[in-house]
Every structure is written in structure tokens, then in C-alpha cells.
Amino acid sequence: MDTMSLYHRELLTNHYHPKVNAYYFKQWDSYHMPFHIHDEVEIMYVIDGRCTVDTVEESVTLKKGDFILLDANVSHRLIVDKNTPCRMLNVEFAFIKKEGCFPSIKQLADENSDLTEFLLLHHSYVVLKDPNEIYHTLKNLVLELDKREPGKEIMIHVHLAQLLMQIARMVVEEKEKKSEQQQANVYVKKTIEYLHHNYDRDIQVKDIGDSVNLHPGYLHRVFKKQTGVTVMEYLTSLRMEKAKMLLADTDIPIVEISYYIGINSRQYFSLLFKKYTDQTPVEYRKSIDQNIVKFSR
User: Fold this and answer.
1) Which residue of 82, 123, 244, 288 has the smallest Cβ count within 10 Å?
2) Global pTM value
3) DSSP-assigned states of every residue in 199-232
């Protein structure tokens, strides 16, 4: 293979195995590594402490349980501050033509959609938080690599395959979460726009859900998660701010203001306004008028 990239197309069209070329545990107490590249794919796993990994794209801080997967030929450097030592496990692997009976990466990907999707993403690097499984796999891999007994190759293949599929699942799940987050942001934005355009009408969560094509219950959960308040709490807050503006800047009778903001009960409006401002609408307008008089004097 001309390149050892994890995302080389040949991995999905021909038969290759990953092969570990280097691995080590190391305690870094203070270190500033120059930028460099490897022909191999590299995993840098933080066992304890913290460090910084710089690439040409960004600087990434890794803490205990974090790891970075760097593709081959990606320029990077490691920085460890003297006040925060870092213990790491590094594994570097390349790809060789399939040997023996263990499935190739292509064969594994044919049976594992997450692995296929991951190998098509072409990330220069990925940074992930270990869900308490990656370090276990890495440690078992290193234990097998350290053995001198014959027949260990099959277990090395098993652990490498497990490692790649675990990372692939994590990357795909992270991608899906980001996609869901982006979609949720769109729904929340549309909901807020709808509320600002329709706060002066009698509207219910069902009406809002229909406007953004979401089930009211799901909309409620998404909106609360994104904004920290429910849809109706946001609507009430919006209406109260509009009421404050009308009370302060217009001469509209107080008895009519509730209808201007979409509340069909004057009594209910007064209760909400009192709860929101600690003043009744009458008290609020008087306080504004008094402030204007004081200012004009």
C-alpha cells in the first residue's frame, strides 16, 4: 500500500490486517515534543494526568480517560506541563496484506456498518472519552504483544479488531449525536420564531408542534434540553416582556393589554404579571410614570 492511512480505500476493497509496529507506556513529567509525523496510525491514551496534543488544525487537551487517534502522516506534537505530569499508553499500527485465516478489515467492515462508516469519514484525528472499554482492550493487546509464546498472533488480531470496532462505534455515535444536536437547534430556532410571530394569539404546545412538524411531547423535551425552560415558560416570559413594553411605552388601557399579548383573561394576566415582576400591571405602570416624572425634573 502506498500509504498507511486508516482511510485508504484499499482497506475496504482488498484484504489487509492491522499490525502493531510500536507500543509503550511512558510517564511524561515535562516535555515539549517538536512537530513530527508517523507512517503509522497512532493512539495516544492518557492513563493519568493531562497533556496537550497540537496538530496543524487545533490544540487538544487530553485528561485521564481521553485518547486521540491520529491518522498516518498527520503532523502533531505532544506538550506536557511540568506541573501536571502525564502517564500515557501509545500504540502505533500500520497495515499489511492479510495473512492466515483471521478476517481482514474489509471482511470485518462487511459485517459491521459502524466500521464501514468510520473508515469512510477521513478524519485526520478523532478525540474521544473512554467509556471504560478502550483502555481494557489496549491493555490486553499490549499483554499479548509482550508474550513470547507461539500462537499469540490470533489474539493480537482479535484485540486489534475489537479496538477498531469499539472506536468506530464511538465515532459514529458521536457523529449521530452532533447531527441530532444540529437538528434540535433547528427545531428550537423555528419554535422561537413561531412564538415571536404568534405570541399575541391563543396558542398551545400542539399548535407549535404542528408548525415545526414535531410531536408536542418530543418538542417539549428538545426545547427544555436546549434552552433550560419549557416552551410555555418561554412563551409566558415573552408575553410578560411584551406587556412590560406596552405598559411603559403606550397608553393602552391595562384591561386591554392582556388581549394584545394573547391572554384572554385579564385576571390570569394580572396573576402572571405579578408572579413575573413582583408587581401588578397597575403598580408597574405607576412606577414607570414616577420614574419619568423624576427624570424630567
Assistant:
1) 82
2) 0.74
3) TTS---HHHHHHHHT--HHHHHHHHHHHHSS-HH
Q: Which CATH superfamily is domain 233-296 in?
A: Homeodomain-like (1.10.10.60)
196: left (phi over 0), alpha (psi -120 to 50) or beta: alpha
Interatomic CA distance for residues 39 and 6, integer angstroms: 11
User: Phi-psi bin for 230: left (phi > 0), alpha (psi -120 to 50), beta?
Assistant: beta
Render pLDDT for 58-116 as a digit per residue (tens, 0 to 9): 999 999 999 999 999 999 999 999 889 999 999 999 999 998 899 999 999 999 999 99
The angle at the Cα of 104, spanning 103 to 108, to the nearest 5 degrees, equals 75
Task: Give the separation between CA 118 and CA 172, rounded to whole angstroms.
Answer: 7
Compute how many other C-beta atoms are within 10 angstroms of the C-beta atom of residue 53. 21
pLDDT one-digit tens code per residue, 141-183: 999 999 888 778 999 999 999 999 999 999 999 999 888 888 8
Sign for the CA dihedral angle at 173, 177, 178, 183 comes to: positive
Radius of gyration of the chain (CA): 30
Domain ranges of the chain: 10-178, 233-296
